[in-house]
Amino acid sequence: MLWIVALIIMALCFLVSAFMPQHRDIVHGIILGTGVSCLNVIYMVYKIRQVASAAAGERKKRVVGIGFGVRLGTSILAVLLAIKFPAYFHVIAVMASLVTGQFLLLIIGIIFALQEK
User: Quick one: pLDDT at residue 49?
Assistant: First the structure.
């Protein structure tokens, strides 16, 4: 569900980019930040499932961490990409949209919790 909502947001951003070329760098920054944010959320879910299965005794291999370094690295890479190419990406838009995945996950969780009642 997260990917569907994120892809809808990115598609709307591409439409805005096509119709408002003066704000293209801001919209491309939002697209980059949203994509990286959603990838970080998906990776975090994968690592949490690994830790949970190791704690339940289903896995014999020990899980070292929850992948904070990888998620931090991808976020820093996105910001560095925006700094390197300021004509294509707006740095503040990238940094502001790096939390989009977490907010979408919160909103989707609230909607599903309300639907269960």
Answer: 86
